[in-house]
From TrEMBL:
The chain crosses the membrane at residues 12-31, 43-63, 84-105. Keywords: Membrane, Transmembrane, Transmembrane helix. It comes from the Bacteria. This is Uncharacterized protein.
């Protein structure tokens, strides 16, 4: 970002990560994916977290490593680092928020 602060990327990444992860946890628990009778609770909660982590972290990691020359020239390395940290924190926070909502609503 040209006129922004890297903390803006951190906060935006954390919010997006938390929302995506919480929605995935709620959706997959409600749809019973993977089935409750076939797998344990740990696997049932790990699946949405892994899906969210893959969906949220792949693109920034690729821009940081392999696709470095294809990223926006105005995006600094510091911005990308803060975005990755924010999304990782968002995945963790969204997991706890999603589990809390799932136990209350479902």
């Amino acid at each position: 970002m040209m006129h922004g602060h890297p903390v803006d990327r951190l906060v935006a990444g954390a919010i997006v990560g938390a929302l995506v992860t919480a929605i995935l946890v709620l959706l997959l628990v409600w749809l019973d994916i993977p089935p409750e009778k076939q797998v344990g609770l740990a696997v049932r909660l790990a699946v949405p977290v892994l899906i969210a982590a893959c969906a949220l972290l792949i693109r920034p990691l690729l821009f940081k490593t392999v696709l470095r020359e294809r990223r926006d020239p105005l995006m600094l390395e510091e911005d990308l680092n803060q975005l990755l940290v924010g999304r990782a924190l968002g995945v963790v926070g969204g997991f706890f928020f999603g589990v809390t909502l799932a136990t209350q609503l479902l």
